[in-house]
Amino acid sequence: MAIARPHLTSAPSSAATPSTSGRGAPALRVVGGPATARATPRAAAPFVKWVGGKKRLLAALTPLLPRAVSRYAEPFVGGGAMFYELHGRGDLTHAVLADVNRDVVTAYRVVQRDPEALISALQLHERRYLKLSAEGRKAYFYKVRARHPMDVDMDDVERAARMLFLNRTCFNGLWRENRSGRFNTPHGRYANPRIARAPELRACHAALSSAVVLERDFRLLPQLARDHDLDFVYLDPPYHPISATSAFNAYSNGGFGSRDQTELAEVCAELDRMGVRFMLSNSDCDLIRGLYAKFEVREVMAPRAVNCKGSKRGKVSELVVRNVRPGLGW
Ligand SMILES: C[S@@+](CC[C@H](N)C(=O)[O-])C[C@H]1O[C@@H](n2cnc3c(N)ncnc32)[C@H](O)[C@@H]1O
To answer: Which of 229, 279, 284, 291 is most open to solvent, judged by the fewest CB atoms within 10 Å of its CB?
Structure first.
């Protein structure tokens, strides 16, 4: 049974009870549905701005997706652009979204379980921040940034609101952490940032109501594939740097090196042995081409996102790896 696409006309129910197991889990909850629709629903889209977010590359990636996807996982979910795309098609029956970044995972869980509390907390930040002078906003931003969940007791709603406030007011929306796991991007200069974004969060709440959200390292993916009987996985890891200055992989304190890329290729080979279809994005470089030589490797042209110099933005070739072969149902 496919999940009906959600229709949201007002504040949604906060009674989402995501399943935590695989096939034996309770039936998927559908929020709203055609019968209850009273207005055009808003399509859900990433609620965090994330470096490497796939929103702008979806047009190039979607033609490469399998014809049908039912039980899906995204182990480097970040902003989750691909999840929302697949959800919007209406044929997902089960979705597992995972990431190692605790702030992003907490934000997903709060959007899933308590969106109205999150919206209220963000509206408070928005009212306080927008009425300040430029200097006042800067001071407010650094005060919120300095109040870190590792030092201060913070419930999940407060933590998610802190994260989204910082994401929407920091330089370029860049979530970057130092080695000790502290967000360290400076203040941005948006004239009138939309901080609360209630309609967008409610649309995400509806899309996420039946997803399983986990704080997990990608190495646990084969186990997840077994437990959740997955039929397709989209992997969007931190990209291997193509030059010393092109690297951005500080999403979380651990970084992501060549050894991680090699272990990830082993995880993909394991998925392939299990008969699980996978599609992976990465940079176009010798290491990645070598690691996935036995699979189909395609080039796609992508906008180059992380560069403060406008002149260096342009387009760059990226790789898409898939285990396309007869019998796997591509
Ligand atoms: C390129 S981003 C994903 C972007 C996402 N596809 C989107 O559309 O926004 C890579 C993500 O991998 C996560 N990550 C880094 N190391 C990881 C690991 N060892 N296991 C799981 N996730 C990891 C980061 O926190 C980050 O969210």
So the answer is: 229
Q: Which ligand 1 atom sits nearest the alpha carbon of residue 48?
A: 9
Is the pTM here over 0.70, yes or no? yes
Name which residue sits closest to atom 11 of ligand 1, judged by CA.
Answer: 76
pLDDT digits (tens, 9 = 90+) for 177-190: 888 889 999 999 89
Q: What is the CA(79)–ligand 1 centre distance, in A?
A: 9
pLDDT at residue 24 is higher than 80: no
Q: From the alpha carbon of 79, which atom of ligand 1 is closest?
A: 9
Note whether residue 71 is domain-resident: yes
- Is pLDDT of 84 > 60? yes
Residue 253 within a domain: yes
Q: Pick from 57, 100, 262 the residue to mutate for probing ligand 1's pocket: most ligand atoms within 8 Å of its CB.
A: 100
Domain count for the chain, please give it: 1
- String of b and e for 31-68 (b: at least 16 CB within 10 Å)? bbeeeeeeeebeebbbbbbbbbbbbebeebbeebbbee
Higher pLDDT, 162 or 31: 162
Are 53 and 81 in contact by the 8 Å Cβ rule? The answer is: yes
**Any atom of ligand 1 within 6 Å of the Cβ of 99:** yes
Tell me the CATH number at 86: 3.40.50.150
For residues 62-82, give the mean pLDDT. 96
Asked whether residue 92 is assigned to any structural domain, the reply reads yes
Which structural domain, as residue segments, surrounds residue 93?
34-101+209-322
Whether 304 maps to a domain, the answer reads yes
Give me the pLDDT at residue 252, please: 56
Residue 263 in contact with ligand 1 by CB distance below 6 A = no
